[in-house]
Give the backbone structure.
Amino acid sequence: MGATDHRSGGRTRPGPSGDAAPLVAAGHRVVVEAAHEILGAGGNAYDAVVAAGFAASVAEPGLTSLAGGGFCLVRTAAGEEVLFDFFVDTPGRGGPPAAEPRFHEVMVDFGAALQPFHCGPGSIAVPGVLAGYLHLHQRLGRIDLATVVAPAVRLAEQGVELLPRQAGIVSLLEPILLGTDAGRALFAPGGRLLGAGDRFRNPDLAGF
C-alpha cells in the first residue's frame, strides 16, 4: 500500500480544470470507487487509502483482512517520507512452549504444485492492519473516521459481487475458508461455495 499527497509531485493526471487529479488503483472496482467517494467528500490521499483498505477487506476477502498485517509508504506534501509498519507479531514469542502444536496442515492445490498451509489457533498472529489504518488516519487524515469507513460498511451490509479473480482465490483456499462454522456461513451459505458473480456479504464486519 502506498499514498502520495497529490500536491507533492506524485504521478497524476490533469483534471478538467487543469489541476492535478488523483489516481487510484485497486484489485476491485468497488475499492476504487470507495477511494474516489472519500476524495469527493473532501478527504485527502491518506483518507482515500484508508477507505480503500477497509473496502478491500470486504471486497477481496481472500487477499486482505483487518486481522492481517501490512506496510504503508507515504510521501507528504512537505516531502516527508514515512513507512508505517503494522505487520503482524508472531503469537507466543517469549512464552513457554505449547504443550501441543496448535496447527493442522491443509494442502492447497495451485495446479502445478501442492503447497502445505499450516492453519489453526497457532497460526493466528496479533492483528496489525486495523491499528495501522487507524493510526494512519489519525496522523495524516483530514475528514472524520465515520465518513472514511462508510463505503466499507455499506459494502459489508449490501454485499459485493465476487469477480472471477476473487472467486478463484476463494476456490483455491476452500479447505481453509470452510474450516470453521463462521467460514462456512460466509463463503458457502446454503452449503455451496461462492463463485464468480455471487455476492459476498459480511454483516458482522459492518457492525464491527
In short: Strands lie at 2-4, 13-14, 20-21, 70-75, 81-86, 104-109, 114-119, 160-161, 199-200. The chain has eight helices and nine strands. Residues 4-18 have pLDDT under 50 and may be disordered. The first strand starts at residue 2 and ends at 4.
